[in-house]
From TrEMBL:
Pfam families on file: Acetyltransf_1
Annotated organism of origin: Paraburkholderia tropica
Protein keywords: Acyltransferase, Transferase
Residues of the N-acetyltransferase domain: 13-189
Regions that span the bilayer: none
SUPFAM superfamilies noted in UniProt: Acyl-CoA N-acyltransferases (Nat)
Taxonomy, superkingdom: Bacteria
Protein name as it appears in the record: Ribosomal protein S18 acetylase RimI-like enzyme
Length: 189
């Protein structure tokens, strides 16, 4: 867990677009954050239940996602005085003031110290500065603690559900047959 006190972050905390050289580190961070420990690393609080196995992403998939989504931004976050990436997030305009936010990830070794809240707020600033008015997120239905975390940050359940893509293992290998995506939205002010 981070030893940085909540609300006392280094001043240089802006998000920057990932370069191609950053992709391997983003992939490692994302897979660790979403799937938990690799044996050498800490396990994050939000991933203890194993409802999916397999990697969340790969370098090939992420590069492909970027090439087919030219308006999307993969943003990374480094803290002042540190070389490694502590967090990353995908942001993509959907038209009419709506933006999709996905793949929000904080290094599991640094979670539960306020970094996730700060990263989410920086991502919201990024969208706001580009004229966005709503942020849309999809979360797998069984992740109640994560849904609660977003709700405490102003996101609400739109009542819409999207089917889980069973049979397409690029999202991981499902361990349950009752998965779907819950759509959450926040109105930016
Ligand atoms: C979601 C994520 C980005 C949050 O990052 P973080 O640095 O841990 O977040 P913060 O430190 O700001 O907040 C920690 C929160 O977890 C809560 N928490 C900690 N341990 C918990 C537990 N065992 N059960 C439930 N909640 C817990 C804390 O109470 C705190 O919430 P609060 O401030 O509203 O009370 C991070 O956990 C992550 O990368 N998860 C894996 C990837 C993922 O699921 N991303 C979202 C996909 S939509």
């Amino acid at each position: 867990m981070s030893d940085i006190p909540k609300d006392d972050f280094p001043t240089s905390v802006e998000l920057v677009p990932a370069t191609d050289d950053d992709i391997p580190e983003v992939v490692r961070l994302t897979n660790l954050a979403y799937r938990g420990s690799d044996g050498d690393s800490a396990e994050g609080w939000s991933t203890r239940e194993k409802y999916l196995t397999g990697d969340r992403t790969t370098e090939k998939l992420l590069r492909n996602d970027l090439s087919v989504s030219p308006h999307a931004s993969l943003l990374i976050w480094r803290l002042e005085g540190e070389s490694g990436i502590v967090g990353s997030v995908w942001l993509e305009p959907q038209g009419d003031g709506n933006w999709y936010l996905g793949s929000l990830a904080v290094d599991p070794a640094r979670q539960n110290g306020g970094l996730g809240k700060k990263l989410l707020s920086l991502a919201e600033d990024w969208v706001r500065e580009r004229g966005g008015r709503h942020i849309n997120i999809t979360v797998i239905n069984v992740r109640e603690t994560l849904i609660g975390w977003y709700e405490r940050r102003g996101y609400y359940d739109m009542g819409e559900r999207e089917p889980f893509p069973y049979g397409d293992d690029r999202f991981g290998v499902p361990q349950r047959d009752d998965l779907c995506f819950v759509k959450l939205q926040k109105k930016l002010v």
